[in-house]
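3.2 Worked example (two chains)
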Amino acid sequence: MLPPQPEHTNIPFSAEPDTFDQHLIQLGVLPVSPHRLMDALAQDGLNIKSLSVPSHLSESIPQEYIYVVSKLRFEAYRAIWIMRYCDFWYRKRFEFLCPAQANIYIQHKRSVQLLLGWDDFNTPIRASPSPADPKLPQDLIFLRTDRCTYATYFQFHHTTVWNTRLGVYYARYYRYLVVAKHILERDPLPSGVSEKLDTWWQGEFLAEMKKWLDASQKVLFAPSYDAAVNELAMVITGKIEDGIQMAQTFKHA
């Protein structure tokens, strides 16, 4: 889980690839032990048994190849965390509708969390809020809008998602695939071993890797400013006493 962010609207880092690893280090995501790496991949739905060279083949193939396979697992781990971060920041979109002043942001953020029933990690406090829950009084909610602040957030998130979908952040994954192929071309394996390794590689390893590669193409872009305002206005309508009037005021602020 990602930690709560500071109580302001500053973007903590650039969306450029060379700054992303530094931020993941600050979050404690990197470096990572092999055990924690495998746990993270399993949590994301990958079959970790299929991600290691089968033991009955490992003594017959170059150790360099096994090392490259471990680097491919690392790139998958790193890419999954980047996708998690994209989702984390997508869920913060309503926070960035307000001006950048810290005191306004704190009140606005708390109001958004109250409206959505979210905690400081922007995850639901309750699994399934009931439509019968009492509506919130208007005096508990403090919301403001500011296009400039949202534009900064939108550009950051848009670039991050594009880089994720285009493979910019995990370009090394594709390079390691080429390296793995070159190792086997340089040091051909006996036919029986080669066939068994290829069966594992194509039928298990790459099939599991395809899961996160496919998921990277479904990472959500943050909505436009107007769409985000309308989305939050709908929440206001349903969650606040006399919410229709307050929602209209919010939309036209």
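3.2.1 Second chain
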Amino acid sequence: MLSVYIAAVSDRHYTIVRYTSTSTQTYLTYYKDSTTSQMSRVQLLNQDLPTTKAKVFYRQAGPESAPVILLLHGFPSSSHQYRNLIPILAKKYRVLAPDLPGFGFTTIPEGFKYTFDNLAAVVSEFLDKLSVTRFSVYIFDYGAPTGLRLALQRPDAVQAIISQNGNAYDEGLGAFWDPIRELWKNNNDPKIRAKLVPALLSFEATKWQYEEGTQSSRVIAPESYHLDYALLQRPGNADAQIDLFWDYRNNLPLYPKFQEYFRQSNVPVLAVWGKNDQIFVAPGAEAFKRDLPKAEVRLLDAGHFAVETETEEIGSLILDFLGRNGI
């Protein structure tokens, strides 16, 4: 049995969702090409892929034979944040956007340890199961320490890096991290953990991440932060999220290793940054030039979730950047 309905409409695209008898959802997104004003079609598949550590939910679109772009989301979101970017990139590339463990619709067994090493391990196995051996990676927020771990493990596999507020430098950490540093200094103190839950996981905190620094909050789709907040409320998820904030301290000692990788690999990097972000601040974007003089830095008048408000500009920058690098 097949049911069809229009799921989303905008001046840029509309989406038809088809549910089949399997768990796969097929999204047929018709987007307006900015160069021709014609409507073109992109098929987006939502699927689950079992790995040894998790059942990974992911979105994919584009020709299977095309070069791969891996989109890694951040806190507190999921692959849903890329729903509008995927059709733009899928015109030329095979786009893969998994939900990280603890987020979105990826399911994990009891006893899973929420560390960035484990997040990277899940994504690594995900790529292996899909036989992906070369890819460009879009790193945002938590996607940065996850994706850069992959780059350390398989440097020859990474063709290019697009960092959208994805940090690899000490100077990129904003004041947002000050209360979390207290958790680090006090050895994961339960009292501090308890204080961080409302500060970081409340509806207001989730909405703030989307709206802070934007030119107008009216351009933010409210379902974005409503969905994120709803998924944060799942039983046990608060502990998982605070565990990841606690483990984030282990990313900082890796920054020099990430930077050494940049220097040795000379990997093409596009740092496209919401310059008004208070979580990962603009100096973190400029810092890429220290290790990669040819890194391209674009500071946009946007906040943390720049991809929500500047989707078309970011998509165009990525297509141009990858094209000029022969990808």
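3.3 Remarks
The chain is about 35% helix and 20% strand.
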